[in-house]
């Protein structure tokens, strides 16, 4: 049963940054009717969006999935035996040999699977994954009877909890564990590098499986109980002492019992969801959206490893680690608007592993520079980053792009401590690495030697890197001014901004990959278009030339279809949203769901790749609320099909909470709450003018000034809470779900 809880202070986690990132969740002001303020409303609302399984899942891409940011489990029939298995994974389990780097000697390692060893063959299931409770429940039917099932990975304890009880027939319950081979999944796709050693077989003893590793350390899987099973996975390195922690995990869980574990688990999840609310009149996308929030909270937490391409659910994949040339960045965008800083393991990892970011550059640059090569594990040690103009394909910009995510975390909190202590010093060193290689031509223009545009080609004046350099210098200058640092490099940053070569492009096909390479074939990655999105360095709302350049570039990019993949459609959907073309953005999301997203909302190429569905949820945010360039845009790209929309407490840059309602195809009101007292400029969707701004605290009129592009400039102090309405009207300020159908779209309904 659901437990009554109050809204909680936002979690931040990392000791040095927690206080500056956390905001107390403000109660709804007296004039705002929030129908989603209590647990029963959330249980009913999310219950209508839960994925269900009426057929037996037989692959990971059909499976219910559970997790707590470290430990994960996917539930499906594996192999030829008709039995249900819980395939275990953990984002902390990896090898430590070093040989072959991320993909081989340091690769994430599979764990194994717990199989429900029924007497009869599995014939049917009737299962439901409750998003609100983060719990799988229902029945499984075998040739011998029917069993009731409940399962969850505990929200804060590394324990899988499974309750199985006979409901009819002669079925009995037993469990077996099958360890996986402790080898890199990459070996199924590529040959082993010379010197890679083979880990010994796992040792099974009773209800404990011990996997020792040749480089030191071990992984221990332990379980206990039958009708109520408790299982844990613990990885230790370099010591081989995981068994002791596994025993403590299970002992503490057993002391609480099933009811205590359930209450503790649900308490966390019930506090998780109400931090923000999004509802659109499109049940398939609405359900997809909330499953992505559930997925992200299942896949990572601020105190857990930075996300890998599979999350904690390691399946056959050539990518058993963390990828930094798009994957990581897309995985975390969802945390900003939703206010879920407790999931931001990216910013926390950048903060924790600064020394490795320095060690990643060649020795002669370590006094003032940082960088990352393409892949790492949780420690962000990538090996030596390539040198611009050097051999091979020097992919240089990945750290700078990751720091854009950290900057977004700052912008949504406006916590100057984050800017001063994390974003500024790391970005300064990332840009310094570029400054070693930028050179002026005789005409005074800065050029970049040959670097690699992710997944396409190397070229001089690569647009991927030029956009990141431009954003980095502009951000450093703004931070230097805000924090009054007087940095001696400020003149250099300004000089680079003033004299950086213009983006290579032409008047027919738009942006090139770089000065030496045009886009002439299909390209799933939008690395050459970062100028427009997500960096917003070329503004398209009020600049016709930039708008035309983006339109040409997208038409040319999307005109080649052979290599497009899922995130082609999330990225282009967001770019259409920037252009205000909601129907086209919606079309890209529809294609994503129709062609690429799997039954459980996962996504695959050669293996599971978690970033694409997560970035699809961000595309929805971009359609609903944008806040780049110091202006909040409400409903900037809502498609015609979404006649009803509700957003509540979505966070924006500048640290504002936005609530807005659209009914019968028209914006009814826009509410703005300031969390930091920053300057506020709002474009209130298609709300009919003339406008009136009222305080939600006392109902008094709030003066405002007209800004550019139909915006309102609001003089808000920290804590001010106002609503924008059409003058002379008194709309009902009601937060409630948009109209929807009751059809189930996800799982195997």
TrEMBL record:
GO terms for molecular function: alpha-L-fucosidase activity. InterPro entries: 6-hairpin_glycosidase_sf, 6hp_glycosidase-like_sf, GH95_cat, TAT_signal. Pfam families: Glyco_hydro_95_cat. The keyword Transcription regulation does not apply. Its EC number is 3.2.1.51. It comes from the Bacteria. It is an enzyme of class 3 (hydrolase). Residues 293-605 form the Glycosyl hydrolase family 95 catalytic domain. Keywords: Glycosidase, Hydrolase. This is Alpha-L-fucosidase 2. It comes from Kutzneria viridogrisea.
């Amino acid at each position: 049963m659901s437990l009554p809880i109050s809204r909680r202070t936002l979690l931040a986690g990392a000791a040095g940054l927690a206080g500056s990132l956390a905001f107390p969740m403000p109660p709804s002001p007296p004039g705002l009717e929030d129908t989603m303020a209590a647990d029963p409303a959330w249980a009913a609302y999310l219950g209508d969006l839960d994925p269900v399984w009426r057929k037996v899942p037989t692959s990971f891409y059909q499976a219910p999935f559970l997790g707590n940011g470290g430990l994960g489990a996917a539930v499906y029939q594996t192999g030829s035996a008709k039995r249900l298995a819980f395939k275990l994974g953990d984002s902390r389990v990896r090898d430590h040999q070093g040989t072959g780097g991320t993909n081989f000697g340091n690769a994430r390692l599979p764990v194994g699977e717990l199989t429900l060893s029924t007497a009869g063959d599995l014939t049917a299931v009737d299962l439901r994954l409750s998003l609100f409770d983060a719990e799988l429940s229902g029945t499984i039917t075998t040739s011998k009877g029917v069993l009731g099932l409940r399962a969850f990975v505990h929200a804060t304890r590394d324990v899988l909890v499974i309750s199985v009880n006979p409901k009819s027939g002669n079925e009995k319950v037993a469990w077996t564990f099958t360890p996986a081979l402790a080898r890199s999944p990459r070996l199924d796709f590529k040959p082993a590098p010379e010197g890679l050693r083979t880990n010994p077989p796992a040792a099974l003893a009773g209800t404990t499986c011990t996997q020792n590793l040749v480089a030191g350390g071990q992984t221990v899987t332990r379980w206990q109980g039958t009708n109520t099973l408790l299982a844990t996975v613990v990885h230790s390195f370099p010591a081989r002492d995981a068994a002791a922690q596994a025993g403590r995990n299970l002992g503490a869980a057993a002391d609480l019992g099933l009811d205590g574990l359930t209450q503790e688990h649900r308490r966390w999840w019930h506090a998780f969801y109400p931090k923000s609310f999004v509802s659109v009149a499109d049940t398939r996308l609405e359900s997809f959206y909330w499953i992505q929030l559930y997925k992200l909270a299942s896949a990572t937490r601020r105190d857990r490893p930075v996300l890998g391409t599979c999350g904690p659910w390691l399946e056959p994949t050539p990518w058993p680690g963390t990828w930094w040339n798009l994957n990581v960045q897309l995985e975390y965008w969802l945390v900003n608007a939703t206010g879920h800083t407790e999931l931001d393991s990216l910013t926390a990892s950048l903060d924790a592993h600064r020394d490795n970011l320095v060690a990643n550059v060649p020795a002669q640059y370590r006094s003032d520079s940082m960088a990352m090569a393409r892949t790492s594990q949780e420690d962000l040690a990538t090996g030596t980053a390539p040198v611009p103009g050097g051999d091979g394909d020097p992919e240089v910009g990945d750290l700078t792009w990751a720091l854009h995510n950290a900057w977004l975390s700052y912008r949504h909190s406006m916590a100057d401590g984050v800017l001063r202590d994390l974003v500024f010093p790391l970005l300064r060193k990332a840009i310094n690495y570029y400054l070693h290689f930028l050179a002026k031509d005789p005409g005074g223009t800065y050029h970049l030697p040959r670097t690699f545009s992710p997944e396409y080609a190397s070229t001089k004046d690569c647009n991927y890197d030029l956009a990141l350099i431009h954003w980095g210098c502009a951000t450093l200058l703004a931070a230097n001014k805000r924090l009054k640092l007087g940095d001696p490099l400020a003149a250099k940053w300004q000089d680079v901004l003033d004299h950086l070569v213009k983006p290579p492009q032409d008047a027919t096909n738009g942006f090139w990959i770089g000065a030496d390479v045009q886009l002439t074939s299909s390209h799933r990655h939008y690395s050459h278009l970062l100028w427009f999105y997500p960096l917003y360095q070329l503004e398209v709302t009020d600049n016709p030339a930039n708008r035309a350049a983006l339109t040409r570039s997208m038409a040319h990019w999307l005109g080649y279809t052979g290599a497009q993949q899922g995130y082609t459609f999330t990225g282009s959907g967001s770019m259409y949203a920037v252009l205000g073309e909601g129907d086209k953005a919606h079309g890209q999301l529809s294609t994503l769901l129709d062609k690429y997203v799997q039954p459980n909302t996962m996504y695959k190429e050669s293996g599971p790749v978690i970033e694409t569905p997560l970035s699809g949820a961000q595309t929805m945010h971009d359609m609903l609320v944008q806040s780049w360039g110091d202006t909040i845009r409400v409903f900037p790209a809502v498609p015609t099909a979404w006649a009803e929309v509700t957003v509540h407490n979505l966070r924006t840059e500048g640290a504002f909470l936005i609530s807005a309602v659209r009914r019968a195809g028209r914006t009814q009101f826009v509410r703005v709450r300031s969390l930091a007292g920053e300057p506020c400029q709002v474009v209130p969707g298609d709300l009919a003018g003339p406008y009136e701004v009222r305080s939600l605290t006392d109902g008094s009129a709030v003066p405002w000034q007209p800004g550019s592009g139909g915006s309102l400039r609001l003089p808000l102090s920290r804590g001010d809470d106002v609503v924008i309405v059409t003058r002379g009207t008194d709309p009902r300020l009601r937060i409630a779900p948009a109209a929807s159908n009751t059809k189930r779209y996800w799982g195997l309904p």
